[in-house]
Design brief:
The protein is of the alpha/beta class. Helices cover 41% and strands 20% of the residues. The protein has 2 domains: 64 residues, Helicase, Ruva Protein, domain 3; 200 residues, 3-Layer(aba) Sandwich (Rossmann fold), CATH 3.40.50.150. It binds S-adenosylmethionine.
């Protein structure tokens, strides 16, 4: 079978299973199966593929048909300028979260040495991207899950920032170590009831990375409360929020002694990030 026919077969199977990005996903999965890049596929549509490679491609397509996200099948995801190793123990890094990186780089543009805490570090996409950009910054990441922290450590090796990173397995409630110039967090902020209505793909991701309790604010509340104690005066807290949480989160921040510097929108024009300063 040639590449074009394999792609068509895969595409039909994915469409039948209501995968909306069928063409793109097929290209990524066939690239993985034959260990070539997407450009090779497009330039070699008539090239025959080995039977064993097609069988592997068919296996990958079946995984995707069950709605397993492509990033979990390929075990990688691009974020900012880097590629992160991912599996089902971490949230798949989202393009919207890159807003946090832009804000951190803007706010620290004249700083050379800083200590940053990432609450709910996950794959490490936020903290490690910053450590990679800023060679004299040090990072501390905490997360509930040891399996998640293992993935973060793999990524810190990959990016070569291992020696500037400390990781702690801890609930933010119980974490009382150090004082920080900057704290960043993308906590779970989806309302418990809304989780049931999410796309099938998202159900593969860890619930503890998504579930923000009944009102979606339970983890944000904890993060702000603890950050007020762990942050230095004039330190900066940068939070990712749900598109409809701006006003509530602003009020919680103000009550805890933070001044709202700005609210930033994502590429879909939704409020996505609040930058605040501890007074
Ligand atoms: C939305 S994910 C964000 C992961 C990563 N920072 C990112 O932006 O892709 C939230 C992370 O916070 C962790 N988490 C949830 N509740 C927590 C808590 N109370 N204390 C510490 N970590 C928590 C989860 O395990 C998950 O890895």
């Amino acid at each position: 079978m040639n590449i074009q026919t394999a792609l068509k077969k895969g595409r039909l199977k994915l469409r039948y299973n209501n995968v909306s990005s069928a063409q793109l996903d097929c290209e990524i999965l066939l690239s993985k199966a034959i260990n070539k890049d997407k450009k090779f596929l497009i330039l070699n549509l008539n090239k025959e593929i080995e039977k064993s490679d097609f069988n592997y491609f068919d296996f990958l397509i079946n995984e995707r048909s069950k709605r397993k996200p492509v990033a979990y099948i390929t075990q990688k995801k691009d974020f900012w300028k880097y590629e992160f190793f991912v599996n089902e123990n971490v949230l798949i890094p989202r393009p919207d979260t890159e807003v946090l990186i832009e804000q951190i780089l803007e706010i620290t543009k004249n700083k050379s040495k800083l200590k940053i805490l990432d609450i709910g570090v996950g794959s490490g996409c936020v903290l490690l991207s910053i450590l990679k950009e800023k060679k004299n910054f040090r990072g501390i990441g905490i997360d509930l899950s040891i399996k998640t922290l293992k993935i973060c450590r793999i990524n810190s090796h990959k990016l070569g920032v291992d020696n500037r990173l400390k990781l702690y397995k801890s609930n933010i409630d119980n974490f009382n170590t150090g004082k920080y110039d900057l704290i960043v967090s993308n906590p779970p902020y989806i309302k418990k009831n809304d989780l049931k209505c999410l796309e099938k793909d998202i159900k593969f991701e860890p619930a503890q990375a998504l579930d923000g309790g009944v009102d979606g604010l339970s983890e944000l509340n904890k993060v702000i409360d603890k950050s007020a104690k762990l942050i230095k005066t004039k330190g900066c807290l940068i939070l990712e929020i749900g598109f409809d949480q701006k006003n509530k989160v602003k009020r919680i921040l103000q009550k805890k002694g933070f001044y709202i510097k700005r609210v930033v929108k994502d590429s879909s024009n939704h409020d996505r990030c609040i930058v605040s300063i501890k007074l």
